[in-house]
Amino acid sequence: MHPLDRPFWTALNTRQSHLARWNAAQTAVRIDADYGPFANAAPGHEGALAGLLSGPQDEIWLVEPEEVSAPGLVPKLTAPLVQMVSETPPPEADFAGIVPLDETHADQMAALAMATKPGPWGPKTRLYGQFYGIFDGTRLIAMAGERARPGEGWAEVSGVCTDPDYRGRGLARRLILRVMADLAARGDRAYLHSWAGNAGAIALYEQLGFAIRRPMVASVLTLG
Q: Are residues 91 and 186 in the same domain?
């Protein structure tokens, strides 16, 4: 199995195992809920996923090649994704004005993520790795960072979002390239996910040297 076929399963069994929260039988796992809702089960043990949820308001996300169903859980959302990998060297970019984000920016990062919904965001999502932002005065208007590290040599670009008032200025492009520079410096190849229907985002990623590796599915499950 390629490490990107089940990226969170791979990540929680390797480089991000410190964030793994397993069931007693070690057949199902979710990431520390403060980081996000991502989870996985060993093949044939999907029923164990129900034991990972804390209550009816909780949810888990599975990013897999196929839709996931599990006994005892109901689907809240099923959405097609594309998984893209960096295939060519990224173009040159100007990093002027790009700022490393830290705990002093946590509230602004969360507000921007909630407003633009680049993906699940929790109290510690910003701690997956270094995030970068662009400001207009004191206002955070765009950011990007990283998320899953599924085995040696791979890291996911994530959390890419721009305030709607500032779109169309190439901010996301510059931020993605800044994150990719960090990944390359430590020997990681970048990959990412996009909603399959987001043609604009996919076109941007292709301009940055990404190519579609395979279709994926996001399955969001709850206790009902």
A: yes
Structural domain of 186: 84-214
The number of folded domains in the chain is: 2
Is residue 2 assigned to a domain? Answer: no
pTM of the model: 0.94
If one counts every other C-beta atom within 10 angstroms of the C-beta of residue 91, the result is 10
Same domain, 97 and 188: yes
Question: Domain containing 143 — which CATH number?
Answer: 3.40.630.30
Residues 6+ apart with CB under 8 A from 155: 129, 146, 148, 149, 183, 188, 189, 190, 191
Residue 193, CB-side half-sphere exposure with 13 Å CA sphere: 24
Separation between Cα atoms, residue 154 and residue 6, nearest integer Å = 13
CB 183 within 8 A of CB 190: yes
CB burial class (10 A; 0-12, 13-18, 19+) of residue 122?
A: middle
What is the mean pLDDT, run by run of 10 residues, along the chain of 224 residues? 96 98 98 97 96 95 97 96 94 93 98 95 97 98 98 95 96 96 95 95 95 98 93
What angle (nearest 5°) sits at the alpha carbon of residue 172, between those of residues 98 and 145?
A: 70
| pLDDT score recorded for residue 90 | 86
DSSP per-residue codes, 38-103 = BEEE-TT-GGGGGGG--STT--EEEEESS----TT-EEEEEEEEEEEEE-SPPPP---TTEEE--G
